[in-house]
Design brief:
Elements lengths: L4 H8 L19 H10 L12 H15 L5 E7 L15 H20 L4 E7 L1 H8 L5 H15 L4 E5 H7 L2 H21 L2 H9 L8 H17 L4 H24 L11 E4 L15 E2 L18 E6 L3 E5 L1 H5 L3 E5 L2 E4 L2 E4 L1 E5 L5
Parallel strand pairs: 1-2, 1-4, 2-3, 4-5, 6-11
Antiparallel strand pairs: 6-7, 8-11, 9-10
Length: about 350
């Protein structure tokens, strides 16, 4: 495409700092903590799906109020990806998908600051160490994490601070963390493969919350299978490797909770997620704000940015997410590679079209 102007205009409309200030209904609420909580739950911010149960809404409001009552910035954490795992994405770098997620997060932070001037400070955890344990250290992790750091630096979002999980582990107790991870993995393998109730008791004693129903297991196996397919595993090995990867995933997720590497034990901490709830996840564990990965004007899809390719859909340059399912089902067809620069940030935003619309 010789002229990038139409695509650029479409993306500029998503930039948080170009949006006009709006008088939100939440401003009329004298309870600022409730107003901020409502902001996270409104359409265009929250992820599509079931609303938080009332008990969890109350819990989130208490966390917000713990900061607003002190007049201090609200701490928040986002656990982000550590590698571009989109199965059919031909490059390892963050792209339009991650840029849209950061613009969405920045827009939310900006709206919070209008309601509450101390604002919100977000720690974005780049899961390099997590991905190295689950899928093996490879050449895709550094381009992705380094690319995210560069992207945030270009956008100039001083209220979103990226931090590597590797650095959080090093600042804690790396040897103890590795030992706990291996122990968690051994317990999970016993329970997963045999259903041993003693193993389940050991898992709960280690801090595991909730259950592992069949639909949840199948969901994780499918996700791992997509990543491992990209890594060119032989089909005969894929199921075995996917199961092993899921067990490593669950074991390291438990380690993060055991050592509070994400800071969730802080009674003021807000947990923000771009990852949709997994099937079978107990509703009483919904203690997060699940936010849409695309700002209004972008795609309404809910997929973690690192699991999708950020694209522009022709003919109107609709910013969207292209998932493995879109390619496998033949919904989207690639048209042209495109690199675009916006606010000093260079990113891939390839052009696609819907197969149903023809050439």
């Amino acid at each position: 495409m010789k002229d990038n102007a139409p695509a650029l205009r479409r993306l500029e409309a998503l930039c948080w700092h170009r949006l006009p200030a709006t008088e939100d209904e939440a401003r009329l609420d004298c309870d600022v903590a409730q107003s901020i909580t409502n902001l996270f739950l409104k359409r265009g911010v929250r992820m599509k799906g079931p609303l938080l149960p009332e008990q969890q809404k109350s819990e989130m409001r208490k966390r917000v109020a713990a900061s607003t009552s002190l007049g201090e910035a609200i701490p928040a954490v986002v656990q982000f990806g550590g590698s571009k795992t989109a199965q059919y994405c031909p490059y390892p770098d963050p792209d339009l998908a991650e840029w849209m997620a950061m613009e969405q997060l920045a827009r939310i932070c900006g709206e919070v600051q209008r309601l509450y001037p101390p604002g919100i400070q977000v720690q974005l955890i780049l899961a390099d160490e997590f991905y190295a344990h689950v899928f093996g250290a490879d050449e895709t992790i550094e381009p992705y994490c380094g690319g995210m750091e560069a992207m945030l630096g270009s956008i100039g979002l001083d209220f979103i601070r990226p931090v590597r999980l590797r650095d959080l582990v090093r600042a804690a107790n790396p040897e103890a963390i590795e030992s706990s991870y291996q122990r968690n993995r051994e317990i999970l393998e016993r329970y997963w493969r045999t259903g041993d109730q003693r193993a389940w008791a050991d898992l709960e004693n280690a801090g595991w919350k909730g259950k592992l129903p069949l639909e949840q297991r199948e969901h994780y196996l499918a996700r791992a299978g997509h990543v491992l397919t990209k890594k060119r595993f032989e089909k005969a090995r894929l199921d075995v490797e996917a199961e092993s990867a899921v067990l490593r995933f669950l074991a390291y997720a438990l380690v993060i909770a055991q050592y509070d590497l994400a800071g969730r034990r802080n009674p003021r901490m807000l947990d923000i997620s771009f990852v949709p709830r997994s099937p079978g996840e107990p509703r009483d564990l919904f203690k997060k704000f699940y936010i849409a990965p695309c700002p209004p004007g972008g795609s309404g899809k809910s997929a973690p940015p690192w699991t999708a390719q950020g694209i522009l859909l022709l003919p109107d340059f609709q910013p969207s997410l292209c998932t493995a399912a879109d390619i496998e089902d033949g919904r989207y067809v690639p048209v042209q590679e495109l690199t675009i620069e916006i606010d000093g940030c260079r990113l891939r935003a390839d052009l696609f079209r819907k197969a149903s619309e023809g050439c």
